[in-house]
Design goal:
- By secondary structure, this protein is of the alpha/beta class.
- Helices cover 44% and strands 16% of the residues.
- Strands 1-2-3-4-7-8-9-11 form an 8-stranded parallel β-barrel, surrounded by 7 helices.
- The chain is globular, with a radius of gyration of 19 Å.
- The N and C termini lie close together (9 Å).
Length: 326
């Protein structure tokens, strides 16, 4: 199975104007799709940004012509009500000419606690996520929706502007419980770990006929100076070492700074390919291809390091295409 390589528009490390500029450059460099994070806070203060993803995606849709766009991911159970997410997604799909796919997940405390409703335990979050997926799917079906669940009530809601083609829904999963909750409501899988078992379980549970699309993500620190790349990765991405179960629970950038204070540069370099070694990058990508992923969005660490990466992108995609048929 071939592996398609995408570009990550990471809101936590770039301003909205720069994100639009990078999206145009990514399209020019040959990327077929771009995913965008949707956070209220950066992971660490050093990253320094966090513009609104939906407003920025609207600008990106207007500034590009071919680039497929995807949220990676939006949480419909905290800052946003699921009806609002459905309306935003339908509108963006129209504005982009059908180039938008809606990536959804159950969120992180870092971003969702900001509306003052606390942070539910994981089983309650999964219950709310399942109801949110029901609501969004019903709204995408068209017509008026009335819904009464344990966590949400929707009264006579209709999306007045729907795209000609239904917006594909992807769900972020990280284990059996999340797959059981979300896969039956979704068209494709989103995950940050190359878990072959999760791939096969998702295919058995999804509503899609045949193997579903699986979209992964991998941070890299591309750069000619390897020492600088390692230092950049440590400065900006040392939070990554915590793993999903930790990362979903911490409430603030200060919390991530404290949790990662003993992470060393060499620890980060073991998890994130640093430098400009194409062979090393191919080996870092290989587990996703072997696990059965169809798509992998690379994150170039550092807002100030995007231009060097984008200049090298054709060579990077050629090397990965040769290795994995992308």
């Amino acid at each position: 199975m071939s592996l398609s390589i995408g570009y990550t528009l990471m809101c936590e490390q770039s301003s909205p104007l720069d994100l639009v500029k990078y999206a145009r450059a990514a399209e020019d460099a040959g990327f077929g799709y771009a995913v965008m994070s949707d956070h209220f806070n950066p992971w660490l203060d050093e990253q320094g940004h966090s513009p609104n993803a939906w407003v920025t995606l609207g600008a990106v849709a207007n500034a590009t012509e071919r680039l497929e766009l995807m949220t990676y991911v939006t949480c419909p159970i905290g800052r946003y009500h699921p009806t609002v997410v459905a309306q935003q997604a339908a509108t963006l799909a129209i504005l982009s000419g059908g180039r938008f796919s809606l990536g959804l997940g159950s969120g992180e405390n870092l971003n969702e606690h900001v509306v003052g409703e606390g942070w539910d335990p994981v089983n309650v979050r999964h219950e709310r996520f399942s109801e949110a997926l029901d609501i969004i799917n019903q709204l995408f079906d068209g017509g008026y929706v009335n819904y009464v669940g344990d966590h949400y009530r929707v009264d006579s809601v209709k999306l007045w502007d729907l795209p000609e083609q239904r917006v594909p829904i992807g769900v972020a999963v990280s284990g059996q419980q999340s797959i059981d909750t979300a896969a039956p409501h979704a068209d494709f899988m989103i995950a940050v770990e190359p878990d072959a078992d999760a791939v096969s379980v998702f295919d058995a549970a999804t509503r899609t006929d045949g193997p579903a699309r699986k979209v992964g993500q991998l941070p890299i620190a591309w750069g000619a100076d390897k020492d600088e790349a390692v230092a950049r990765a440590h400065d900006q991405f040392r939070w990554f070492a915590g793993g999903w179960k930790v990362n979903s629970e911490l409430p603030s950038p200060a919390g991530f700074a404290a949790a990662s204070q003993f992470v060393r540069p060499e620890d980060v370099a073991e998890q994130i390919p640093c430098g400009d070694d194409l062979d090393a990058l191919v080996e870092a990508v290989r587990p996703f291809a072997e696990a059965g992923f169809t798509d992998l969005a690379l994150i170039q660490v550092g807002g100030d390091a995007q231009e060097e990466y984008l200049e090298a992108a054709p060579d990077i995609m050629a090397a990965l295409g040769s290795a994995f048929g992308s």
